[in-house]
Amino acid sequence: MEFQNPKTSDFVVHEIAYVLMGGFYGRYAKSLALRGLTDGGSLTCVDTSAAWMDRARRRLAKATNIEFHCGDLAELDIPDASHDVAIIHLMLHDVPEENRQGLVSALSAKLKPGGRLAIREPIGRRHSLPEPQLKDLLSAAGLTETSAQHTKNFFMGELYEGVWERQCA
Question: Could you report the per-residue pLDDT of 16-46, keeping only the tens digit for each?
């Protein structure tokens, strides 16, 4: 999956339900809404910041297939096992360390069995998440890595991009 210029070809199927954490102020969500959410697909955007959520709402005001939730994912009224794909986009490293496992586990719980999580996180600079720690968080949440690559970004440095799958019950 290419995150810099988002394409949904790896994930687009009819009637898919996405949940997105982070998302470049709604830019990534807008790309998903315009390119991939057809024939009943939906997108659930989650953020703890009311300011970022308001910005995303304004950017996506014309979309009818997007829900916005501001708050702690574990406490929001989003049913477990209800989404096909989850996306963490450049935000997990900003979550306080003591809250990361709870967030990743809550997000994993929102995935249907066999659902996939796509993640893009900085791993190579001071303000980043070491790759072994990132993989431990995802594994502890019941996810298995299916693909991964390293890329570079001028502003963020080295990035880990991976797809993880929720194990069937």
Answer: 666 666 654 566 777 777 665 666 778 888 8
